[in-house]
Protein 1
Amino acid sequence: MSAVLEVRNLTKDYGSFRAVDGISFDVPKGKVIGFLGPNGAGKTTTIQILTGLTSRTAGTVTFLGKDFDTHKEHCLKRMNFVSAFNTLLGRISVYENLLVFAHLYEIKNAHRKIMELLEYFEIRDLKDGQYQHLSTGQKTRVNIVKSLLNAPKLILMDEPTASLDPDIADKTLSLIERLRAERNLSILYTSHDMEEVTRVCDEVIFLQHGKIVARDTPLGLTKRIPNVTLRLMFNDHKEIITDYLSQKQYPFTLHDEHTVSMDIEEKLVPRVIFDLSKLGIWITDIEVKKPTLEDVFLHIARH
């Protein structure tokens, strides 16, 4: 599959501090790539380089087969950026804001393009309202409309659902999924919400101290943590259970007289349940909690 964006050995130094340390990655056509890491990992600096706001110290960036430095205007006309933390001009209307950006991108038939996108995102009725009077969710939709005016091949999305209530965040994610499916759009996606990353991203890149420390599908990353949390509820014989778990050296927590949880390898779950049944324990409920992308994020951030 051809890559829309290719980054090779990207490096950015601020004096003696290296913010981005020789990273390389691709964004394939029609894919959503999560770009994650704790604060200070190098995500923002990388995005600033990709949008031309910051120069790089070393490395190459190729967009649609063209070198970003020598074809910067060509590249920037075919990508866009959206963030929950960016705002448009507050005292003019939504339509006027979008018209300004349409002219900046030299969009032909700007009026028709704006109206089509407002209709697509079901916010045509906001056209004449001042941007400053919109709700957070409405501003997010307008910002996404802005990012699509130039029919980009790549959108850089920085925390697009930040500060949104769950219902509006879910609708925003549905719009992102719809965009990817209908327009074969490539997206580089940053977020601190691991559930939404798991939902929308095909692959995930983890940064730490300016380096890429992991890249895989969300499922592939969670499989790197072999343990699951097994939670059991039982009728009686607490002592038999604790003796058994202590003998097997399984770390466990006794929550009350009838509930215990333990962290064990997933393959051992059937064995534990079988052994306890043979010891006469009547298990009334079983819950297996597998690792999530948030567990992976915390593991990388702490180790």
Protein 2
Amino acid sequence: MEFNDEYFMREALRQARMAYDAGEVPVGAVVVWNNKIIGRGHNQVEQLNDSTAHAEMIALTAAFNGLGSKYLPEAVLYVTVEPCLMCCGAMYWSKLGRIVYGAEDVKNGYKRITGNNWPFHQKAELTGGILANECAQLMKDFFAAKRK
């Protein structure tokens, strides 16, 4: 089995589908260390009645608890949608080595607020657009169903 960005983004998509099935905005995330998933999360804002219960926050907390560490410089966070500014702050303080996202979020993504300013840790790498169409379609399907 080949562990690559698409493989781990598919795992994040599994998490996003769990959010979708629970009536949550379908965003999913996984944190990976040495090709092993150490944290998983999906949006639970409605379930927990907590506006900070984003997929990334939940996946990061699981990773911190699993490793017993507050920093993740060797880790990669995969998230199905471009992170919001709040989640970028958490990623910054986590000192994540790499962030990978699927679809862009022109309405709530970090770029809407920061423009060309880098919101992540200075050593972090960023890759966008992995399985972007699949990630975006899940969001489109969710909001189309809500409008019916």
Protein 3
Amino acid sequence: MTASVELRGLRKTFGQVYALDGLDLTIQPGELITFLGPSGCGKTTALRCVAGFEHPDTGAVLLDGADITAIPANRRDAGMVFQSYSLFPNLSVRDNVAFGLRIRKAPVARRHARAAELLELVGLPSHGDRYPHQLSGGQQQRVALARALALEPRVLLLDEPLSALDAKVRVALREEIRRLQLSLGITTIFVTHDQEEAMAVSDRVAVLRAGRLEQCATPAEIYDRPATPFVAEFVGTMNHVPGTLVGDKVRVLGRLLPVDGPAPAGPEVRVLIRPEAVLVAPDEQGAGTVTASSFRGASARLRLDLGPDGEIIADVPGHESVRLAPGTKVAVRLVERPVLVAAPEAVREPAAA
């Protein structure tokens, strides 16, 4: 039921715009990989090329080593779940799930048995006789997921399936999707622009920018060891602090830290630092001042004024926020670990689509 997917040098243009610009990527059997990036980065176009709804100008899509680039979408052995659910309003839930089997002229008993099996799998065993308008958004998306699985596809394609749902339902459903994917062992491509969503469900995350792959790695590696300043900027929150290169290290906020990866021509650079790598303590003689505090339960986010070094954001344990109220003078130091550096003039891109 599972398969490898390989994208080889995919290029796709729309007018003068490159939606895909030489995309190369291999997805292993049973892996859930997420295409992540801002609007216009090519993630949905790449998914649609795998599905067969778009055809690349050049390059190839391979399924278990076989070139399927020219094969029509209905013969690609892939199940797709869309953002808009796309359920048939005049069909019951049971018939929506079994629609693909009906098209393939499967016997009625087989269709109903398969629909019942899948509705049980997605947690809607008693909803077979209902119609889409009688379901919540989350329930409709579960039905869409069951329908995509009805033909036992070798690849499951999810095109921003949770973006139309409210936050609480999104979290519950993404966990359900991951549970199902792991239990079925099905190769899955998930498209989203939501960083938290990508990090929560994926074996690997492929970060795209302008039709090209910036980095493909585990969520932990993407977050802790971003390959480029763009990835560092796009995934999570990142501070930009002025620093000076000293050999293979950088001097920043009074510390000499090792540089992670290549460094631009120096000596002046900007150092990229995660908020949790900023350590803060009350200190009347400290060089920083807390200007804002946002309590988040287990943690609190502080905005600090460092004078000539500008502003910096720090994440601290929630209980620390009481003694780090706005106006508090603080000492600031950095966790001892390698940091990513970039040229001072490097463009900072928005972290959301």
Protein 4
Amino acid sequence: MLKKELRKKYKELRQQLTEDILVEKSLAIANRMLQLDVWDKMYYHLFLTIEEQKEVDTEFVLQILARKDKEIVVSKSDFETFEMTHFLLTDNTKFRTNSYNIPEPVNGLEVPVDKIEVVFVPLLAFDLKGNRVGYGKGFYDKFLSKCNPETIKIGLSFFEAEEEISDATNNDMRLDFCITPNKIYTF
């Protein structure tokens, strides 16, 4: 299936999810995440949920990372350059939602990309090869292309894998894992 078709399909599927199902599936993803062998790292990049897009609620992931005493990194997006700046999440971090209703840090201690060891990646759909479909702006592909080759990329999805994203390119950054409520995919 083409990215454009997948975006439409999965946006519609997400909109059908009730609040209770969103919470239940998000919690199942966070619990399944504990089975991964990634807990020896220190810097974890986490996307913050866009509620009206009915994304995976990353609050549960955030709680796990905090309990494991990990350094949590969150980003601010620049919609002119499609680049992200990364900040350490602290007790003093203040947030503001941008024009796309993405919660972002106002300021803070900037974290260089080469420090980030694990990235939790938002997505609409993914395939059996680890390709993903996002919203189409390329923020994460740009960001992930600047990460170290050893950086672990983990997608979070309410839905299972598609067979193939037929128009995936070499510029699309592949995932290492994708976690759904029912399964961990390894690529």
